[in-house]
Amino acid sequence: MKRFSLLAIVIPALIASCTADSKKQVSQAKTDFTKIEVADTANQKAADNKTILSRREVPVLCYHQIRNNIASDSKRAHDDIIAPDKFREHIKMLADSGYHTIQPDQLYNYLVYGSKLPEKPIIISFDDTDEDQFTVGNTTLKKYSFKGVYFIMTVSIGRKGRISYMTKAQIKQLADEGNTIASHTYDHKNFAQFTEEDWKTQIDEPTRKLEEITGKKIEYFAYPYGVYKSSTLHKLKEHGFKAAFILSTARDEQYPLLTIRRIIDPGRYTAKNLYYSINKSFNKTKS
After folding, report:
1. pLDDT tens per residue across span 114-125
2. How far apart are CA 249 and CA 114, in angstroms?
3. Cα(231)–Cα(250) distance, integer angstroms
4. Under a CB-based contact definition with an 8 Å cutoff, are residues 83 and 69 in contact?
5. How many whole angstroms separate alpha carbon 258 and alpha carbon 223?
């Protein structure tokens, strides 16, 4: 009986000790990997524009509203609306096809430093802050261990109505769960029509607000309507952005990091249509 009692004390103690050592080793490995990753990019020379343009493009998808169409929706709006069931079907197709979601930091390091990416990388992005991107979009991505990029239009945060928008708490949760929160201006003003004042109201103030909500640096931007103006692209970098995303138009050869292409996944597409569109749009290089 005494022998049994001794074993009952010693064995759990040994297990606890081994578990603690294992956790310590895993923690140390993560720390070391982070240091190596930072050192790798810190000691590498950044690629020039020609090299960045020559790298194979990573597919970037863009979503807006995830809901069923209603009678008052315009024909044009249909491209920006995808039914929840169809959205789930499309995300399942991506997972079943072997795609792995990546974040903008990974894409940036790949383009600038040639860092490795997982097999079949893809970015799934959402514009305009709609709440269904949280309730349907984020919930669906989690099912497949996917992460997303959420381009926030700050004027809409917390608003309710025919279309409801994400709250500060929901945006914070997305950031805490490892998704990227990024800027989409204050109220969706066309970037090509920016005045000097807009760099404060449409860029700097939204950045500060999102950083207050998330506690993280905001370094990525998506142009409303996908429209940009070449002569003012340099100012985005001056205002703290590492990269910016357009839609399906051609990239600017002087600022390829500030004109990264995306395609919309229209609500009329089947999963097969989407798969074909991804391959047609992105699986090529530019010499």
Report:
1. 999 999 999 999
2. 24
3. 16
4. yes
5. 10
**This prediction's pTM:** 0.85
Compute how many other C-beta atoms are within 10 angstroms of the C-beta atom of residue 131.
Answer: 21
**Whether pLDDT at 3 is above 90:** no
- What three-state secondary structure class fits 149? strand
Residue among 284, 281, 279 at smallest CA distance from 97: 279
Please give the C-alpha separations between residue 15 and each of 10, 121, 161, 177, in angstroms, as whole numbers: 9, 39, 55, 31
How many Å apart are CA 51 and CA 277, to the nearest integer?
25
Task: Compute the distance between CA of residue 18 and CA of residue 10 in angstroms, rounded to an integer.
Answer: 12
Helix 168-176 / helix 205-214 crossing angle, nearest 10 deg: 70
**pLDDT tens, 68-108?**
988 888 877 888 999 999 999 999 999 999 999 999 999 99
Q: Is the pLDDT of residue 285 over 80?
A: no
Eight-state DSSP code of residue 253: S
CA-CA distance, 262 to 152, in Å (whole number)? 16
Mean pLDDT, rounded, for 161-182: 97
**Phi and psi at residue 145, in whole multiples of 5°?**
60, 35
DSSP bridge pairs for 53: none
Looking at every residue in the chain, the average pLDDT score rounds to: 88
Token pair, residue 32, equals 């070391």
Structure tokens at 94: 């991506």
Which pLDDT score, from 0 to 100, does residue 104 have? 98
Residue where the block lists tokens 């096809």: 97
